[in-house]
Amino acid sequence: MNKDLLKSEVQKFINESLEANFSKIALLKNPFPEISWTEILTQIASKAKAKTKLPTWFNTNNIIYPSKISIEQTSSEITANYKAKLISGDSIIDLTGGFGIDDYYFSKVFFKVVHCELNQELHEIVKNNFLSLSVENIEFYKGDSLDILKNLNSKFDWIYIDPSRRNEAKGKVFMLKDCLPNVPENLDLYFTFSDNILIKTAPLLDISAGLSELKNVSEIHVVAINNEVKELLWILKKNFLGGQKIKTINISKDKDEIFDFDLVSNDDLPTFSEPKKYLYEPNSAILKSGGFNNVAIKYNLSKLQQHSHLYTSEELIKFPGRSFKINQTFEYNKANMKESLMNLKANITTRNFPESVEELRKKWKIKDGGELYSFFTTDKTNRKIVLICDKI
Predict the structure, then answer these.
(1) Average pLDDT, the chain
(2) Which of 126, 157, 253, 276 could be 89's S-S partner, Cβ–Cβ 3.0 to 4.6 Å?
């Protein structure tokens, strides 16, 4: 960590460059030859990225930032705050401390927080930043978290882990055993130091795959911000053998959409029907959770088709997702498309449909946007249909 970055004239230059064109800034001559230009550019790019994601850090003086990629991969303050509302106690150890966003919020609900970080520079950066943030109940350890855990040899109320993928070349499908640390391999050891474990994973992890690798899972939280799933949170309790609760939340500026259900074998199936007066599309957190039948049953809605995940009713209800009034329904064919949608401006959504949004736009010359909403999907008789709607 280069403390020269905290000099007032350097900080002034960084702050004045945040709104400028980064490409043009990068071509300038370095006004501070004693500091690497790459280091200064990193501060500009990372701080600009932190403006909306990490406003507490952005608005605090004498903060040093890691790489822009690290900022992109760290928890946002919104999700960190959500996690801190789930758990509390006397002590927590974060085995994958990183930039420390989660630990900042844990420090508000725990008497002591232990931050572990393998990378020396990041370890020093975080220590500096928490001093600037006036947080005094966090202890910092540099090194392998498993060794730190063994050396401390203390019982913690909670262990927190945010494992990182070790091999990006494996594509989008990954298992927890492919991450660092290897949580499934070390789970029994972790439970000797705490009865409660909170694990954060990327939304790419399949829930059924996670359950196949973990044990003693009591809750799974699917957290979305503005209808984009950001995190899966796994709460593990020592010796827990019951069924899992799935808790979904979509956090937005106006409201929080919450839908919870039990992950148990359920023989209850939703009804299926032709489109009625209103159409409903679940938010992304519900879609990720797999609670397709649960949401239909809870809200007494009919599904259009088993795999379409669109719902309908005669009476308008308050629903955790988008709601629409159906103005027109027709079978998908050339004649109907030419009459109803061709050359128009419309928002397009596909659900259980063989053609992509891009293909449909190109094929029927449909411009993006406007007040019209069109859904291309499959009905209960497996017909390809189009629904023209107004958003409610």
Answers:
(1) 94
(2) 157
Statement: residue 169 has pLDDT above 80: no
Q: Is a pLDDT exceeding 90 seen at residue 35?
A: yes
Q: In sequence order, which residues have a C-beta less than 8 Å from that of residue 4 and are 6 or more positions away?
A: 10, 32, 34, 35
What's the distance, CA 18 to chain centroid? Answer: 26
Q: Distance of alpha carbon 94 from its chain centroid, rounded? A: 19
For 3-71, CATH gives: 1.10.10
Kindly tell me the sign of the dihedral angle through the C-alpha atoms of 385, 204, 283, 361: negative
Backbone torsions φ then ψ of 340, nearest 5 degrees: -110, -30
DSSP H or E stretch at residue 188: helix 183-193
257, 284 in Cβ contact below 8 A? Answer: no
Residue 329 pLDDT more than 70? Answer: yes
Model confidence pTM above 0.70: yes
Q: How would you class 206 by CB atoms within 10 Å of its CB: exposed for 0-12, middle for 13-18, buried for 19 or more? A: middle
Which CATH entry fits the domain spanning 74-262: 3.20.20.10, 3.30.70.100, 2.40.160.210, 3.40.50.150? 3.40.50.150
Select from 241, 178, 182, 236 the least CA-distant residue to 206.
178
pLDDT at 294 over 80: yes
Mapped to the 3 state alphabet, what secondary structure does 241-254 carry?
CCCEEEEEEEECCC
**How many other C-beta atoms can be found within 10 angstroms of the C-beta atom of residue 242?**
11
**C-alpha dist (Å) from residue 14 to 53, 265, 298:** 18, 56, 52
| Cβ-based burial of 86 (10 A; exposed 0-12, middle 13-18, buried ≥19) | middle
pLDDT at 31 over 50: yes
Q: pLDDT tier at 300 (50, 70, 90 boundaries)?
A: very high
Residue 68 reports pLDDT greater than 90: no
